[in-house]
Design goal:
Elements lengths: L13 E6 L2 E6 L7 E4 L9 H21 L14 E4 L4 E4 L7 E4 L1 H4 L1 E5 L2 E4 H8 L33
Antiparallel strand pairs: 1-2, 2-3, 4-5, 6-7, 7-8
Length: 163
């Protein structure tokens, strides 16, 4: 199960621990992820209430930033490389936030192959490429391989329901 992001909490909803310069905020609701906040040496002088107030303010700031954020997906123009290889990290990374690729069948042993530009990535390499955006959401739209640059109309419905 994917955990929910931390929320503004009251003292009865969390357990606060200190580990060095960090505050660990554990929610009683296990569906909410634990928050780890670096406060610094002043943590030793702070009460649990002050730590929770600090945590709640960070959550409020994050929520304000999310509300104001306008995402514009960047698609690399056709003919320009969409991905680049980082040899030190031993992985491919996307140069933009839209990827055009073709899925191939590498057979039972190899699994799917992903063709991006002139590169051929196996499932593991493709997964590492996607992990660049860990924590983000992703929409996948399947299109014919000769229409990768077109934005198809999207119809929201259950395909098992009759039109």
């Amino acid at each position: 199960m994917r955990l929910k992001k931390p929320i503004v909490a009251s003292p009865d909803q969390v357990k606060i621990k200190r580990e060095g310069e960090y505050a660990i905020i554990e929610y009683a609701d296990r569906s909410i992820m634990t928050a780890q906040i670096k406060i610094g040496p002043e943590i030793s002088e702070m009460s649990d209430e002050e730590i929770l107030e600090f945590h709640n303010r960070l959550v409020e700031i994050r929520e304000e930033m999310v509300a104001e954020y306008e995402h514009i997906a960047v698609e690399i123009p056709e003919g320009r490389p969409q991905i680049k290889c980082h040899t030190l990290a031993d992985q491919w990374t996307p140069r933009g936030s839209v990827l055009r690729c073709v899925i191939g069948d590498g057979g039972f042993e190899e699994g799917p192959i992903f063709y991006i530009d002139d590169e051929e990535l196996d499932l593991w390499q493709f997964g590492r490429l996607l992990s660049t955006y860990a924590g983000w959401g992703m929409r996948i739209v399947f299109v014919p391989d000769d229409r990768l640059t077109e934005q198809p109309p999207i119809e929201v419905r259950d395909p098992d329901d009759s039109n």
